[in-house]
Design goal:
Length: 184
Amino acid sequence: MSVTIVVLYHSSHGSVAAMAHEIAESIECQGGNALLRTFVAREPHDIVISKDDLIQCDGLAFGTPTRFGMMASQAKAFWETTSDLWLKGQLIDKPACVFSSSSSMHGGNEATLLNLSLPLLHHGMMLMGVPYEVPELLATQTGGTPYGASHVAGAQNSARLSKDEIKICQSVGQRLVKITRKLQ
Ligand SMILES: Cc1cc2nc3c(=O)[nH]c(=O)nc-3n(C[C@H](O)[C@H](O)[C@H](O)COP(=O)(O)O)c2cc1C
């Protein structure tokens, strides 16, 4: 069964974009259709999210950098335009997950994952974390949490995604497709 998952993200230095691409690739590997979307056009290939994208998708992965322990303002500004969708309940029961990148290990990425979850819960989406059956969740020395995939980019934003962080991103994409199919 064909499922369409929107992978919606903001990224200034490339870390969250790299996570979004890992998640999108794993969705496609499972036979799903991944739509990469951003909040603002920063790169020539960026496609900016529309409310129709959200209404028509079967599931959502949503990520931004950690900004003082919260989501990036670009994402907050977008969600504040979605009251009409909320009034009509147009996102209710769609499965969703969140992901984030931070400079430092304990710099608030878990708080940001919870913060990213809030608008999705208000919209009635079905929030998915990362279960501990994903072995990399226990093994990781950097990012990866039960609340969602994460990455620790370092003070200069120079750290690439670790093998464990990549596996956790991939598990998120795979599980989104699996659960979305079950719900259809
Ligand atoms: C305004 C601002 C606030 C930030 N706040 C935090 C923070 O609270 N904790 C942290 O570890 N990193 C913080 N950072 C660093 C970003 O989270 C980090 O650069 C992130 O990995 C960038 O993701 P990107 O490469 O996708 O842009 C902040 C950066 C900016 C610009």
